[in-house]
Specification:
- By secondary structure, the protein is an alpha+beta fold.
- It folds into 2 domains: 114 residues, Beta-Lactamase (2-Layer Sandwich); 168 residues, Histidine kinase-like ATPase, C-terminal domain (Heat Shock Protein 90, 2-Layer Sandwich).
- A 5-stranded antiparallel β-sheet has the order 2-1-5-4-3, with helices on both faces.
- A hairpin with a 6-residue loop joins strand 4 and strand 5.
- The two termini are 70 Å apart.
Length: 400
């Protein structure tokens, strides 16, 4: 049974840029612009052929015969539109086959099928090229990311060494104090021995004092050794209060030499955070040295203003985060440079007095802990840096 006048449809189909086959209910071709030469290597028309005659030839010419077999089985029973991409056996061509069942509006019976075959070779090859490029790009990005991380690690390590260099005088003073105490004890013991008054009752307490001072030196050296090590990247439960107290032990003498006082307001019930201890220390050292420099700069520019140089450390819990604040009494940050403050190598210091990597490194470290760092500043009054890190065990995505 013919669906429509073949002569009318043939003219329309011939004008199409796609391969089109119109089949009747029994699967015989009524109209088509596909010549047998495309499938059967003969110049005769495909009109009147049954769809099953295409099956074997399609299977021979396409890469996946099982795919063709499944497609013909779907053709016989399908009730909705279906499409599938077929690849030629030699891999140089791709065709999109779209099968559209035609249903009678009166009886609801299937009265025919419209098959549209589109040559999608160029599009498919482009898709393959894009996929290959995406894979290569992903590899390039991964490699570049590794390089950036290595450079960041080198910068962070350089920043730590620069900080230790700046604190060298204070650290030396911190070590000299117990050494001086040991020296006094030894001198006292020698005098007692010369006078014949060295007894066990005098010797043992003095030796305990010497041991205590040696342990103090050992702790300082161990802390410096740990601080100078490269980051491992392994996060653990950390107390921010302990980190602040430890960096103060290293910097106390240095700050005192600069006539800088320190105020602590630390929440003793502070929850732990997931972080890396030494890099977290580096952040607090960077913020502390930044505060020191800001106050010294303000003092040098305003010698007629009498203001106490003071650094404040404040910790507390806020929702699912632990907050740490480092505040100074410097001159504040001018509005025109506030957006650049965390940029690598940006510095307002004189050449030779600053690398410009301290705040950038601190920003990267806090971000690696899934945290945030920002600041508030008032010109002529000072700056407050605020660190926010999720409490250990909290998922940042569900934090308020």
């Amino acid at each position: 049974m013919n669906l429509v006048e073949p002569q009318i449809l043939q003219s329309i189909v011939n004008a199409s840029g796609e391969y089109i086959i119109l089949l009747d209910a029994e699967g015989y071709i009524q109209v088509s612009n596909i010549q047998r030469s495309l499938v059967f290597h003969t110049d005769s028309s495909t009109k009147g052929m049954h769809i099953d005659q295409f099956r074997q030839s399609f299977q021979e010419q396409m890469k996946n015969p099982i795919q063709i077999e499944a497609l013909f089985e779907k053709y016989a029973t399908m009730k909705e539109r279906y499409s599938e991409v077929l690849e030629t056996v030699n891999g140089d061509g791709f065709f999109m086959v779209k099968i559209n069942p035609i249903w009678s509006q009166d009886s609801g019976d299937r009265i025919g099928t419209l098959v549209v075959v589109s040559d999608v070779t160029e599009m498919k090859k482009l898709e393959i090229e894009l996929h290959s490029y995406a894979e290569n790009l992903e590899g390039m990005i991964e490699e570049r990311t590794k390089e950036i991380r290595k450079k960041d690690a080198v910068l962070a390590q350089s920043g730590k060494m620069a900080t230790l260099g700046e604190m060298a005088t204070g650290i030396a003073h911190e070590i000299n104090q117990p050494l001086y105490s040991i020296s006094l004890i030894v001198q006292g013991l020698k005098k007692a021995q010369d006078k014949g008054k060295l007894t066990d009752g005098l010797l043992m307490p003095k030796l305990e004092d010497v041991e205590s001072q040696i342990q103090r030196i050992s702790k300082i050296i161990l802390h410096l050794k740990n601080f100078s090590r490269s980051s491992t990247g392994v996060l653990e439960k950390v107390c921010m209060n302990a980190s602040i107290r430890d960096i103060f032990k290293m910097m106390k003498e240095h700050l005192q030499l600069k006539n800088i006082s320190v105020v602590f307001h630390l929440d003793e019930a502070l929850p732990l955070v997931m972080a890396e201890y030494v890099p977290l220390e580096q952040v607090f050292i960077n913020l502390t040295t930044n505060a020191r420099d800001a106050m010294e700069d303000y003092e040098s520019k305003h010698p007629d203003i009498c203001r106490q140089k003071q650094i404040g450390y404040h910790t507390y819990k806020e929702g699912e985060y632990v907050i740490a604040e480092v505040e100074d009494t410097g001159g504040g940050v001018p509005e025109e440079i506030q957006d650049k403050l965390f940029e690598p190598f940006f510095t307002t210091k004189e050449v030779g007095k600053g690398t410009g990597i301290g705040l950038a490194i601190s920003y990267g470290i806090i971000k690696s802990f899934q945290g945030d760092i920002d600041f508030k500043t008032i010109l002529g009054e000072g700056t407050l840096f605020r660190i926010r890190i999720p409490i250990a065990g909290q998922d940042k995505e569900h934090s308020s």
